Predict the structure of Helix-turn-helix domain-containing protein.
Amino acid sequence: MTDITIARLLTTDEVAEILQVSKRTLESWRITGDGPACIKVGKHARYREADVADWINAQTPIAPTASKGAA
């Protein structure tokens, strides 16, 4: 018998809030494949909590910049 792991599914609203982007940006990323992986549940897009966390962790950190006036 196959083991099934039930993951918490997040809505577009929830993920947009977590990532601090608009729903429109998240939907655009979904179309282009730039955002976290999502699944379809009926006609709705849902995001596994672990997929969102993995996507965040995979992002390249912004390099610190030298502050003005620094020698």
DSSP finds three helices and three strands in the chain. The CA atoms of residues 14 and 51 lie 13 Å apart.
